[in-house]
Amino acid sequence: QVQLVESGGGLVQTGGSLRLSCAASGSISGISVMGWYRQAPGNQRELVARIFNGGTTNYLDSVKGRFTISRDNAKNMVYLQMDSLSPEDTAVYYCYAKQRMSTYWGQGTQVTVSS
Fold first, then answer.
1. In the prediction, which pLDDT does 83 show?
2. 31-54 pLDDT per residue, tens
3. Alpha-carbon gap, residue 47 to 59, rounded angstroms
4. 15-34 mean pLDDT
5. Rounded CA gap, 110 and 92, in Å?
6. Cα gap 76→23, rounded to integer Å
7. For residues 14 and 97, what is the distance between their CA atoms, to the nearest angstrom?
8. Half-sphere exposure at residue 99, Cβ-oriented, CA atoms within 13 angstroms
9. pLDDT (tens digit per residue) in 48-72
10. What counts of helices (H) and strands (E) characterise the chain?
11. How far apart are the C-alpha atoms of 72 and 40, rounded to whole Å?
């Protein structure tokens, strides 16, 4: 089992920045990819960014150039630096980790961007 705990959400004005953190613990060996999804009210959960063990990253088109995902394997942490935030980024952000055939989720952290 893998436990994921997010932190760093909050309220920010348009154009501001936030940094989300996700701490992984438990049986973390074999995790191949970690990343972030988000879900706004009435919308489906969407993949925002992910980072593979080798360092390859993928981003949702609408966040490219504004968000940066990074990973500290020594600390079992993954981060999402979010810059130039807009109200469209308002959502609950979920950290996830994929380990072989299993996917684990954090509890979510709210990000609200005011106009």
1. 98
2. 999 999 999 999 999 999 999 998
3. 8
4. 95
5. 4
6. 6
7. 29
8. 16
9. 999 999 899 999 999 999 999 999 9
10. 0, 11
11. 28
Quick one: how far is CA 95 from the chain centroid?
5
The single-letter code of the amino acid at 39 is: Q
Residues whose CB is less than 8 angstroms from the CB of residue 5 and which lie 6 or more positions away in sequence, other chains included: 22, 23, 25, 95, 106, 107
Tell me the pLDDT band of 73, cut-offs 50, 70 and 90: confident
Extract the tokens encoding 65.
């150039």
Radius of gyration of the chain (CA): 13
Which two tokens mark 48?
């925002």
Query: Amino acid letter at 73?
Result: N
